[in-house]
């Protein structure tokens, strides 16, 4: 019986070893060049608690009718370099809305104005966490 | 140990065989479904060329049902696509509508004051940033852009330590 248990355990370990490609992308911020990139899972589980990356949006209903939207991307890397940009550009807001849960995020901004000039997402299996779990 | 491994190997082979049989069965079903769809697509033109009193045969009820299913599917797809077009999520690529807001010196002063307040905080909380952008949203477009530009630059150069 013990042998059987050991055999099954070994089989499971062998299965886990073949878990597909992974490609962690550490958050990297080039503040002078106005560029940031990295994947969310690697940022979330970084040993440095200050590291993060993400994009988001706020929509505001206006008193006179209509609405306005404010989109942003932000990141901080392990060196402490911070990136932040904002956008009201409809296409870039659309890019933010198409973001995935665990993907790679990359964005650029105009250093003089802080306005986002490029927002990109890449949702790939190799960015998924080893095991989906709760915080 | 070897006996157990041999037994596991046999079980694995049987499982593979079973899965292969299932795959072949699914393949056959797919082929049948494709054939049914072809019949369904051909049915409307054929029905139009036939008189209403055409004698019934075994194929007509099947084709009619398939045609009905195809029509229903098309209608459902049209409805889904229409809903997607109307959805705010799907309309993201359209220009964000903004109403013209008249200049208000009080609001301009309020956001300037709030920005200066953020500069004095050692650590800015998300709710503080949200308050700031909410004030910015009430400004005319040019002033709003200026306020957000000031915020972005202050975060990037470290004068404001915080994130959304």
In words, what does this structure look like?
The complex is a heterodimer of chains A (135) and B (164). Chain A is of the alpha+beta class and 135 residues long. Chain A has one domain. Chain A has helices spanning 2-17, 40-44, 90-97; strands at 28-30, 35-39, 52-61, 67-76, 82-87, 104-109, 116-122. In chain A, the strands form 2 sheets. A 4-stranded antiparallel beta sheet of chain A has the order 1-2-6-7. In chain A, strands 3-4-5 form a 3-stranded antiparallel beta sheet. The model of chain A has no long low-confidence stretch (mean pLDDT 87). With 164 residues, chain B is mostly helical. Chain B has 2 domains: 2-91, no CATH class; 105-156, no CATH class. Chain B contains 5 helices and no strands. The A-B interface holds A 3-4, 7, 11, 31, 52, 56, 58, 60, 62-70, 72, 74, 76, 82-86, 88, 90-91, 93-94, 97-98, 109, 111, 113-115 and B 1, 4-5, 8, 89, 92-101, 130, 133-134, 136-138, 144-145, 148-149, 151-153, 155-156, 158, 163-164.
Give a short overview.
The complex is a heterodimer of chains A (135) and B (164). Chain A is an alpha+beta fold and 135 residues long.
Beta fraction of chain A: 25-35%
Q: Counting H and I runs of at least 4 residues, what is the number of helices of chain B?
A: 5
Cα gyration radius of chain B (Å): 33 Å
Structural class of chain B: mainly alpha
Count of spatially separate domains of chain B: 2
Mean of the pLDDT scores of chain B?
73
Largest sheet of chain B: none
Question: Which spans of chain A of ≥5 residues are poorly predicted at pLDDT below 50?
Answer: none
Largest sheet of chain A: 4 strands, antiparallel
H/E element string of chain A?
HEEHEEEHEE
| C-alpha termini separation of chain A | 38 Å
Radius of gyration of chain A: 20 Å
How large a portion of the residues of chain B is in β-strands, by DSSP E? under 5%
**N-to-C SSE series of chain B?**
HHHHH
**Which of globular, elongated, flat, extended, rod-shaped describes the shape of chain A?**
elongated
Oligomer kind: heterodimer
Biggest sheet strand order of chain A reads: 1-2-6-7
What is the total domain count of chain A?
A: 1
